[in-house]
TrEMBL record:
Coiled coil: none annotated. This is NAD(P)/FAD-dependent oxidoreductase. It comes from the Bacteria. The lineage of its organism: Bacteria, Bacillati, Actinomycetota, Actinomycetes, Micrococcales. InterPro entries: FAD/NAD-bd_sf, FAD/NAD-binding_dom, Sulphide_quinone_reductase. It comes from Subtercola vilae. Transmembrane segments: none annotated. GO terms for biological process: sulfide oxidation, using sulfide:quinone oxidoreductase. It holds the Pfam family Pyr_redox_2.
Length: 419
C-alpha cells in the first residue's frame, strides 16, 4: 500500500529484515507505541538458510515467508523504499514520493552486495557455471550445479572488505565436498578456496577445526587473495593478493580455469546512506578479522547503538558501523540493547544497556556437523555457555541447532522480538 503523504510516526524503522522486525517487535513489547517499518519487499528472507539451499540440505522455500505474515503484531508497515533521510528535519523521503516524519528513527537497511565490483562477475552469474549462496535466486542453481559435478575445477571465493557473515562463503563448499565424498568423486574434483584473510577465519581454535576439514577434503586454499576478474566465456578467472583494488602492495595476479564458480560478491554500506549525513566517515573497525572498515555505514556509538550526532537516530544490523562481525547472531544482542535504550530515551531515563560485540558464524563442515564460532569484536571466544568452548569443535549438536532449531526460533521468536 502506498504511504500517505506527510505521515508521522513515533518510531520509524527503515528496513524490515532481521534487524528491523526484531527491534520493532521488542519496542512494542517494551510498551513503545506507533512503531512503523518501511520495507519494499513482498517476501521476507531468512538468509542463513541460503547456505543450506546452495549446499543441498534445505529446499528453497525454507528461506522465504510473506512479509505481511512476519510483521510483528501492533507494528505498522509502509511498503516502499527509502531514497534518503534528512535527519535535521526528521524526514524520510520514499521512492513513491511520499515523506514520513519521525520521532525516533532506526536505520537498518542491511548491506549492499556489489556484483558489478568485479569485472565480469555479474556476467558469469548469468551463465550455467556461475552460482552463489549470497542471493536466493542463485542458491538453488548452486546445488543443481554442484550436485551434478563429477570432475573438473570448482572455485569458491570469499571477498575482502566488510561482509555479512563472511564465513558463510565457505559453508556450501564443505557441504558439497562431503556430498562428493559420499558419491566417490571428490578425488576427481579440484576444489579451490580463495579467501581474503591469511587464515580461514581468524580465531586459532576455529582455524584448527576448519584446517582439519580442508585437509580431509583436499581443498586447495589461496590465502590473502581475492577474485579480481572473470571471463565467463573462456571460463577463466583472475585472483590477486588482497589490495589489488587499492593498488597497494606487490600484487601477484594468477589466472585459473574453472568449471564451476561459486562466488560471493564484495559488499559495502548502501550507497544512499552517504548523502544522508548519517554515515561513519573513516577509520577501521579495529578488529583482526575479515570485516573491513566501517566507512559509509551508519555511524553509531558501538555500545549504545545511538547516533553520535543525532540522538533520536539509532542503527543496528549489517548497516550499522558497529565493531562486531556482521551476523544475525549479533542481532540477538543488538536488538535488546537498542530497544531498551530507545525506550529509556523516550522516557527521559539514562540508557541502560551496552552491546558487548558478540557475534557468531556457524560453519557447516559436513552434511551433519557444524563448527560454531562465537566471538567478540576482537575475535576472542565468547561462548553462549560461559567457560564451555566445546561448541567450537565439530559437532552434530550444533548442526541440529543451525539447520533446525535456529530457523524455528527465527520465525517464531526472533522476528517477534522475543529472542
Ligand atoms: C548467505 C548468507 C548466510 C548467512 N548466514 C548466517 C548465519 O549462518 N548466521 C548468522 O548469524 N548470520 C548469517 N547471515 C547474516 C544475516 O543474515 C544478517 O546479518 C542479517 O540478516 C542482518 O539483518 P539486517 O536486518 O541488518 O539486514 P537484512 O536482513 O538484509 O535486511 C535488510 C532489509 O532492509 C530492506 N531495505 C534495503 N534497502 C532499503 C531501503 N532503501 N528502504 C527500505 N528498506 C530497505 C531490505 O529489503 C531488507 O529486507 C548470513 C547472510 C547471508 C547473505
Amino acid at each position: 500500500m502506498p504511504a500517505p503523504q506527510s505521515a508521522h510516526h513515533n518510531v520509524v524503522v527503515i528496513g524490515g529484515g532481521n534487524a528491523g522486525l526484531s527491534v520493532a517487535g521488542r519496542l512494542r513489547r517494551y510498551g513503545v507505541s506507533d512503531v512503523t517499518v518501511i520495507e519494499p519487499r513482498e517476501n521476507h528472507l531468512y538468509q542463513p538458510m541460503f547456505s543450506h539451499i546452495a549446499g543441498g540440505t534445505a529446499a528453497p522455500g525454507m528461506a522465504v515467508r510473506r512479509q505481511a505474515s512476519v510483521i510483528p503484531r501492533g507494528v505498522g508497515w509502509i511498503r516502499d523504499r527509502v531514497e534518503t533521510i534528512a535527519p535535521d528535519t526528521n524526514t524520510v523521503m520514499l521512492e513513491s514520493g511520499a515523506r514520513v516524519t519521525n520521532g525516533q528513527l532506526v536505520v537498518c537497511p542491511g548491506i549492499q552486495k556489489n556484483w558489478n565490483a568485479v569485472p565480469g562477475l555479474a556476467d558469469a552469474m548469468a551463465t550455467p557455471q556461475g552460482v552463489s549462496n549470497y542471493e536466493l535466486e542463485y542458491a538453488p542453481k548452486a546445488w543443481q550445479v554442484l550436485s551434478s559435478t563429477r570432475s573438473g575445477t570448482v572455485v569458491f571465493t570469499q571477498p575482502a572488505g566488510p561482509a555479512t557473515c563472511a564465513g558463510a562463503a565457505q559453508k556450501p563448499m564443505y557441504l558439497a565436498c562431503d556430498y562428493w565424498r559420499e558419491q566417490g568423486v571428490l578425488a576427481d574434483i579440484r576444489v579451490v578456496l580463495v579467501v581474503s584473510s591469511p587464515t580461514l577465519f581468524g580465531m586459532p581454535m576455529i582455524d584448527r577445526e576448519l584446517e582439519r576439514k580442508v585437509a580431509e577434503y583436499g581443498i586447495e586454499v589461496q590465502y590473502s587473495s581475492e577474485l579480481v576478474e572473470v571471463d565467463a566465456q573462456a571460463k577463466t578467472l583472475v585472483i590477486a593478493g588482497v589490495g589489488a583494488y587499492s593498488g597497494s602492495g606487490g600484487v601477484s595476479r594468477r589466472s585459473l580455469s574453472y568449471d564451476v564458480l561459486h562466488a560471493v560478491p564484495p559488499q559495502s554500506a548502501p550507497d544512499w546512506i552517504a548523502s544522508t549525513g548519517l554515515a561513519a566517515e573513516a577509520g577501521n573497525d579495529g578488529n583482526d578479522g575479515n570485516d573491513g572498515d566501517a566507512t559509509g555505514f551508519v555511524d553509531v556509538d558501538p555500545l549504545t547503538l545511538r547516533h553520535p550526532r543525532y540522538p533520536n537516530v539509532w542503527s543496528l544490523g549489517d548497516a550499522a558501523a558497529t565493531t562486531n562481525s556482521k551476523s544475525g547472531g549479533a542481532l540477538r544482542q543488538q536488538t535488546l540493547v537498542l530497544a531498551k535504550n530507545l525506550a529509556a530515551a523516550l522516557a527521559g531515563k539514562p540508557l541502560p544497556e551496552r552491546y558487548n560485540g558478540y557475534s557468531v558464524c556457524p560453519f557447516t563442515v559436513s552434511r551433519s556437523s557444524v563448527v560454531f564460532a562465537e566471538f567478540d569484536d576482537r575475535y576472542q571466544p565468547k561462548p553462549t555457555i560461559p567457560f564451555w568452548r566445546g561448541l567450537a569443535k565439530e559437532r552434530r549438536l550444533t548442526w541440529v541447532a543451525d539447520r533446525y532449531v535456529l530457523p524455528w526460533v527465527y520465525w517464531n521468536l526472533i522476528l517477534k522480538g522475543r529472542a
